[in-house]
Amino acid sequence: MEDYYSNDSSSSYDFNFLTTRLRLDATKLNSSGTLSFHFDGRERTTLSSGDYSSSIPATRVETLDLEYSGQGVWFFTGRLRPKEFPVERVDGVDFGVRASNYGLGVFAGIRPNPYSDSLNSSFTAAGTYVYYRKDTLTANLAFAHDAYEGATDREYIYSQVTYF
Predict the structure, then answer these.
(1) Per DSSP, what are the bridge partners of residue 141?
(2) For residue 83, what is the DSSP state?
(3) How far is Cα 99 from Cα 158, in angstroms, rounded to an integer?
(4) Cβ-count burial of 83 within 10 angstroms (0-12 exposed, 13-18 middle, 19+ buried)?
(5) Do the Cβ atoms of 113 and 123 come closer than 8 Å?
(6) Counting beta carbons within 10 angstroms of the beta carbon of residue 40, is it exposed (0 to 12), middle (13 to 18) or buried (19 or more)?
(7) Once rounded to an integer, what is the mean pLDDT over residues 145-163?
(8) Are strands 35-46 and 2-6 parallel, antiparallel or unpaired?
């Protein structure tokens, strides 16, 4: 649970929000341990008389997906964040292959409406990513193409490197 309170003496925009978050990661759902279910959602309650935007939904589902992760492959379907691309969110599929310390993945689907968080086929997303993982070093590089009504909305490259 999280409480956010803001009191601005120079304006009438005082806010107080209580956010409750639930995360569930159910792993090893089958005998081989390759099937998992993931849920991450939140509910925001306005405790003050004001709200900074009434168009933002109080309930938000960040992830709701089913995962298969076998020897050298993975496959996700549902509302997900691609495996090595946490800044993108898509209602679709994410699949890839891995060998030793390397992996390559591809994702595609529709993006949740950024204003209402609802399903909306006007927003689409697709991309690919590669990663490298070793005991002391992890690195990934990803590319995404987001579209709105068939036209390019944004394209970007994401990268992250961690050294322990």
Answers:
(1) 130, 159
(2) T
(3) 22
(4) buried
(5) yes
(6) middle
(7) 95
(8) unpaired
Contact 122, 148 (CB under 8 A): yes
Cα Rg of the chain, angstroms: 19
Q: CA dist 66 to 1, 55, 82, 126, 133, Å?
A: 25, 30, 12, 19, 24
Distance CA 81, CA 91 (A): 9
Does residue 24 register a pLDDT over 80?
yes
Q: What is the pLDDT of residue 12?
A: 66
How wide is the angle at C-alpha 81 spanned by C-alphas 79 and 84, nearest 5°? 155
Separation of alpha carbons 99 and 58, rounded Å: 42
CA 126 to chain centre: 14
Task: Let me know the angle formed at the C-alpha of 141 by 128 and 85, rounded to the nearest 5 degrees.
Answer: 60
Contacts 24+ apart (CB under 8 A), 23-26: none
The pTM (predicted TM-score) of the whole model is: 0.81
Name which of 131, 116, 43, 40 is nearest 78 in CA terms. 40
The 10 Å Cβ neighbour count of residue 155 is 11
User: 82 is written with which tokens?
Assistant: 């691609």
At residue 100's C-alpha, the angle toward residues 99 and 106, to 5°, is 35
